[in-house]
Amino acid sequence: MATSVLPPSSEHAQPAEVLLEFPDNRLLIELCGEFDRNLAEIEQRMGVQIIRRGNQLIVHGDAELRVQAGELLQALYERLESGRPVEREDIDREIRLDRSDEDSDAGPDSQLEMFSGGKVEIKTRKKLVEPRTDAQKVYVKNLFEHEMAFGIGPAGTGKTYLAVAVGVSMFIQGHVDKIILCRPAVEAGERLGFLPGTQEEKVDPYMQPLYDALNDFLPGKQLAKLKEEKTIEIAPLAFMRGRTLSNAFVVLDEAQNATTMQMKMFLTRLGEGSRMVITGDRSQVDLPRGVQSGLQDAERLLTPIPKISFNYFTAKDVVRHPLVAAIIEAYDKDEISG
Q1: Which among 20, 21, 76, 153 would be 20 to 30 A from 324, CA to CA?
Q2: What is the rounded distance in angstroms from the CA atom of residue 157 to the CA atom of residue 242?
Q3: CB 221, CB 246: distance < 8 Å
Q4: Which of 281, 275, 290 is nearest to 317 (CA)?
Q5: Are 6 and 16 in contact, with CB atoms under 8 Å apart?
Q6: What is the C-alpha end-to-end distance of the chain, expressed in Å?
Q7: Which strands, in side-by-side order, build the sheet including 2-6?
Q8: How far apart are CA 253 and CA 7, in angstroms?
Q9: Residue of 229, 293, 298, 228 whose CA lies nearest to 256
Q10: Is 19:3 a contact under the CB 8 Å cutoff?
Q11: Chain segment 106-146, per-residue pLDDT in tens
Q12: Phi then psi for 131, rounded to 5 degrees?
């Protein structure tokens, strides 16, 4: 694929253009998307204009932005050449990520051989998961490289989703024997009253986000079989008391709703060959008034320990609907001004 910058022909000419030529017209069609929707997405997000002429794309706009858009289009085309599709989330990821350090990152000899040419990828049974922001990229690396890692930040930043994906990947590769996912069974600001059914049926509504993540990474029949065999466990935090969790990948979700004693109990369950991930959002504590969040205490007490990784996310890392990031930023500003 050829790239060139066309200079203005006269003093009053239009700004220089970035011209990209693509040898495979079939891949170019996929790059542009149905009704050129991918090009429209890039134009809207980056503030440039992209014109398609035969097997060429011409990028107009601000000097820095048109170069960045050209690099983005090249990266997406190379993705297609490698046999991978280009979806909206792939465009979002390439726009967000700083690709300047990819070649200097861990190579094929890195832990678990998860980094190929500096790229961070998580292989599961159903899909290949790729971080979409720089903070997510660092987080995933730390999940593979540290026995205990914290993911702290607002909703929609992929803290739990990526943790479960890494757990499934490590399980598939045989690095752990079990996956254990748990949450504090705390109601989010409303009293649900008596819930009918068995013990499992009572707690399942609290665990649903964890089921949703697992369903994204494992076929339904395999997931059901692993749950039946207790190879995958999803349980309330209280059920962890008295256990030693060895050779397991353990995730504590919604950790801001664990008390200090519950957090200490959970962290001391770590056994040989295990990994622990603790995720939470300090702005969404649902504990009774006056009860200290165990996540805040853990952050205060454990930050000096070098083998424990603390990873932080902001509204810029939200990968849900764009309105979610705007809502989080509005509430954050209100808290600061208040």
Answers
A1: 76
A2: 32
A3: no
A4: 281
A5: yes
A6: 54
A7: 2-6, 17-21, 56-60, 49-53
A8: 54
A9: 293
A10: yes
A11: 433 344 445 444 568 899 999 889 898 999 999 999 999 99
A12: -60, 150
